[in-house]
């Protein structure tokens, strides 16, 4: 079975659609229909991965609907509600320089320069999509200036000054008391 390091959560089954076994999906991809192009879908149930074959899928409203091989009626589709959809990280397309997938930022230390000192604010726990801009959610780590959770807008150039993945570091223009 694949481990979490080789896989990436790409969506969640939110319920059944119709009576022929289709499922509704909340995709974490942007745009949402990109999920349909990823191969190697696996459903995660209680930390166990189960490979599935997608027979058909399409956009429906703001989400997706899909038909999974072997899921032929509404009852079977309802049994999948709440399961996470995971895909191999290797199926993600390469990004341009300076672009990052959210999972690539998680765990990086976030530093700021303040009054001539380099201060550790915390590590990226996860990111939020707010509509206006994405937000880095920082959690406390050893060596941080305090034990607060911080929300820092992901605004390259004005707030996020640099991302150095190989060094495990993001440098921001942020007051340590904010």
Give an overview of the whole structure.
The chain is mainly beta and 178 residues long. The chain has two domains: 7-90, RimM (Elongation Factor Tu (Ef-tu), domain 3, Beta Barrel); 102-172, Roll (SH3 type barrels), CATH 2.30.30. It contains three helices and 13 strands; from the N terminus they run ββαββββαβαββββββ. The strands form two sheets. A seven-stranded antiparallel beta sheet has the order 4-3-7-1-2-6-5. It is elongated. The N and C termini lie far apart (43 Å).
- The SSE string, one letter per element, is EEHEEEEHEHEEEEEE
What CATH architecture label of the largest domain applies?
A: Beta Barrel
Net shape? elongated
Q: Kindly give the count of domains.
A: 2
Q: In terms of structural class, how would the helical and strand content be classed?
A: mainly beta
**CATH hierarchy class name of the largest domain:** Mainly Beta
Physical arrangement of strands within the biggest beta sheet = 4-3-7-1-2-6-5
Task: Provide a brief overview of the structure.
By secondary structure, this protein is mostly beta strands. The protein has helices spanning 34-37, 74-78, 102-105; strands at 7-17, 22-27, 42-45, 48-51, 54-60, 63-68, 84-88, 109-114, 117-129, 134-139, 150-153, 160-164, 169-172. The protein has 2 domains: 7-90, Elongation Factor Tu (Ef-tu), domain 3 (Beta Barrel), CATH 2.40.30; 102-172, SH3 type barrels (Roll).
